């Protein structure tokens, strides 16, 4: 069953005047507590059972160096609900000794959850303001390595390699890192294409994506309007799983769409479908879907003649009038392997 995680949040960050009123209200509450008979032991236990409210942690972080306004151009939406961060960490089964890549740590709410799990975190943050905030919040934490860089231009392996070697006992196979991140919706496809072919570095990639995009990536049903080349890509390199829907009210600022947690269990190279060259394979797949409603004998004619394409389709048991939306991953693999022989 898919659950929707929602919390009631304030529509905007408190301004200085509102913070002063809130502070005054807290003092009144504290005086009231001292005038009543309260079982402090029971209250302490109750406090421990309550989940951390990341709304206040986020507000404090954003106001710690002046009022930080999230940048729309960077797709910044900060998480307000700590239980969502716990779900992200749990989906990747993050535990003590793991090495985790976090993309866009923002205010550090997810970073805190990962560190509390005992993991070593490599956080890549593009925004220099937020990178400075992370440094202030976590100080000189040894298990946090902060990299101020664009993830799409970052040489990830060079940063993770030494950490993975240190975490791997001598004589044993090198450990794999994990990815756990609440990424900007506007770079989700780019990040997925960057990370999924890295099965030699990562075992699992857990991302918070726009809900509709998440559903499209996970569902590989042929002959549906959502079926496209990204489905072939995702299933070539991983086994995807839709984990949990997350309501838009859990973010600040609130986005226009709900989100979802998706787990990609990455395949090793030996587990990839048998193609001569992944590069040529995806070149063919992308060409096929560029003309999604066209027959393959027309959309692939820059690779082979229509007659040769028809012959290849027939030899793998597919109709010569086939369109890309009708082919599964296995169908594309067999077609590609037949065409490269020509």
UniProtKB/TrEMBL annotation:
<feature type="domain" description="Ribosomal RNA adenine methylase transferase N-terminal">
    <location>
        <begin position="84"/>
        <end position="268"/>
    </location>
</feature>
<dbReference type="InterPro" id="IPR020598">
    <property type="entry name" value="rRNA_Ade_methylase_Trfase_N"/>
</dbReference>
<comment type="similarity">
    <text>Belongs to the class I-like SAM-binding methyltransferase superfamily. rRNA adenine N(6)-methyltransferase family.</text>
</comment>
<keyword id="KW-0694">RNA-binding</keyword>
<keyword id="KW-0949">S-adenosyl-L-methionine</keyword>
<dbReference type="InterPro" id="IPR029063">
    <property type="entry name" value="SAM-dependent_MTases_sf"/>
</dbReference>
<feature type="binding site">
    <location>
        <position position="77"/>
    </location>
    <ligand>
        <name>S-adenosyl-L-methionine</name>
    </ligand>
</feature>
<dbReference type="InterPro" id="IPR011530">
    <property type="entry name" value="rRNA_adenine_dimethylase"/>
</dbReference>
<keyword id="KW-0698">rRNA processing</keyword>
<dbReference type="InterPro" id="IPR001737">
    <property type="entry name" value="KsgA/Erm"/>
</dbReference>
<keyword id="KW-0808">Transferase</keyword>
<protein>
    <recommendedName>
        <fullName>rRNA adenine N(6)-methyltransferase</fullName>
        <ecNumber>2.1.1.-</ecNumber>
    </recommendedName>
</protein>
<feature type="binding site">
    <location>
        <position position="104"/>
    </location>
    <ligand>
        <name>S-adenosyl-L-methionine</name>
    </ligand>
</feature>
<feature type="binding site">
    <location>
        <position position="79"/>
    </location>
    <ligand>
        <name>S-adenosyl-L-methionine</name>
    </ligand>
</feature>
<feature type="region of interest" description="Disordered">
    <location>
        <begin position="33"/>
        <end position="55"/>
    </location>
</feature>
<feature type="binding site">
    <location>
        <position position="182"/>
    </location>
    <ligand>
        <name>S-adenosyl-L-methionine</name>
    </ligand>
</feature>
<keyword id="KW-0489">Methyltransferase</keyword>
<feature type="binding site">
    <location>
        <position position="150"/>
    </location>
    <ligand>
        <name>S-adenosyl-L-methionine</name>
    </ligand>
</feature>
<dbReference type="InterPro" id="IPR020596">
    <property type="entry name" value="rRNA_Ade_Mease_Trfase_CS"/>
</dbReference>
<dbReference type="Pfam" id="PF00398">
    <property type="entry name" value="RrnaAD"/>
</dbReference>
<feature type="binding site">
    <location>
        <position position="125"/>
    </location>
    <ligand>
        <name>S-adenosyl-L-methionine</name>
    </ligand>
</feature>
<dbReference type="GO" id="GO:0003723">
    <property type="term" value="F:RNA binding"/>
</dbReference>
<dbReference type="GO" id="GO:0000179">
    <property type="term" value="F:rRNA (adenine-N6,N6-)-dimethyltransferase activity"/>
</dbReference>
<dbReference type="InterPro" id="IPR023165">
    <property type="entry name" value="rRNA_Ade_diMease-like_C"/>
</dbReference>
